[in-house]
Amino acid sequence: MTTAVDGKQLLRERLEGLRQIPTIPAVLTPLLRYLEQPVEKLDVEKITNFLAQDKSLAAQCLQMANSPLFGRWQQVDSLHGAVVSLGLNHVSDIAMSCGLLKMLPGEKTGIDPIVFWEHSLGCALLCRRLARNINLHDPGKAYLAGLLHDLGIIVNLWLLPDEFGEAFEAARSEGIPLHETEQRILGFTHCDSGRLLAERWGFAPDLVEVVAYHHAPQASSQDVALVSLVHIADLLCRTGGLNYGYVEARQVNLSEDAGFTLLVRNSEALRKFDWARLSFELDSYMDEAHRLVRTIYRG
Ligand SMILES: [Fe+2]
Ligand SMILES: [Fe+2]
Fold first, then answer.
1. Contact 237, 119 (CB under 8 A)
2. Contact 147, 194 (CB under 8 A)
3. How far away, in angstroms, is 24 Cα from ligand 2 center?
4. Distance 277 CA to ligand 2 centre (A)
5. Rounded distance from Cα 61 to ligand 2 centre (Å)
6. Ligand nearest 152 Cα, by number?
7. Does domain 4-23+109-298 have CATH number 3.30.70.980?
8. What is the C-alpha separation between 126 and 273, in angstroms, rounded?
9. Fewer beta carbons within 10 angstroms: which end of the chain, N or C?
């Protein structure tokens, strides 16, 4: 078994030496930055221009715009028309999901890419909803943070596919969180590897923290509220049927959760938040994430 120190050393060396580490599709970095703004400041023309730079992304958006999933009855044949027709929120969902999907290794891995992106997208939708409702954060930023929080899983799939597969199988059979078995088997977690990649890609410091500390929000120093928000959304997804294809066998009591306590400290609105209602809504987010990801994959 690898010790924690060996594991982190090994991780660093492998990451340095790996030539085929996934690169973020070129258009996504500026698009990511652009989408950090509040939605009312976003410009359709500008988003159309970003998408036009990547032929396969543009084609995917056109295809989605014409998909019955979005209830279209008229043929959309321009990228601009697709952006208008889908709406800015859906365009960014599709662009980010398609772009990031390309980064998963092609060969068979232990984790099903569909369930991985369902988890990420479900978490993103939930982060945006929570952020809006508790008036805590810019919803666009919260959405991105939710979408990218498990970036390290992609890194682990590239770096140590066999060992990661073993950690994933152990987590699934024991019904426990993945980061616990990663620590035990790899000596590091997807938070450690995700952090290295997020830094290498030049993510903003608060997004780096989300990737690094979403399983330990108390360790964050840049933006405790954002990290805690993602932590809670992730927890709700993992225990609410939107995990990586298995169910964690543990009861979650939000009021005893470290991230929840941190968030309550930052938000008056959270104390009065209607959690019972949210749990009903959670199902519709799950459906939305399922539908979107499966349509993108079948496309
Ligand atoms: Fe995670
Ligand atoms: Fe997660």
1. yes
2. no
3. 19
4. 22
5. 26
6. 1
7. no
8. 14
9. N
* Separation of CA 22 from chain center: 16
Neighbours of 108 (CB within 10 A): 8
C-alpha of residue 35 to centroid of ligand 2, in Å: 21
Per-residue pLDDT of the chain (299 residues; tens, 9 = 90+): 556 556 677 777 776 665 555 566 677 778 777 877 777 888 888 888 888 888 777 877 777 777 665 655 567 778 888 888 777 767 777 777 667 666 776 666 667 777 887 888 888 888 888 888 777 767 778 888 998 899 899 888 888 888 899 999 999 999 999 999 999 998 899 999 999 888 877 778 998 999 999 999 999 998 899 999 999 999 988 887 778 778 888 777 777 888 888 888 777 777 777 777 777 777 777 777 777 777 766 54
Q: Could you tell me the residue ranges of all domains in the chain?
A: 4-23+109-298, 24-102
Q: Is 122 exposed, middle or buried (0-12, 13-18, 19+ CB in 10 A)?
A: buried
Q: Can you say how many angstroms the Cα of residue 253 is from the centroid of all Cα atoms in its chain?
A: 23
Cα–ligand 1 centroid distance for 148 (angstroms): 10
62/77 Cα distance (integer angstroms) = 7
Closest ligand to C-alpha of residue 192 is: 1
Instruction: Say how many CA atoms lie within 13 Å of 227 toward its Cβ.
Output: 25
d(CA 177, ligand 2 centre) in Å? 9
CA–centroid distance, residue 243 to ligand 1 (Å): 10
Tell me the ligand closest to 153's alpha carbon.
1
DSSP 202-236: T--HHHHHHHHHTT-GGG--S-HHHHHHHHHHHHH
| Cα 176 to averaged position of ligand 1 atoms, centre (Å) | 12
Using a CB cutoff of 5 Å, list residues around ligand 1, an ion: 150
Size of the chain in residues: 299
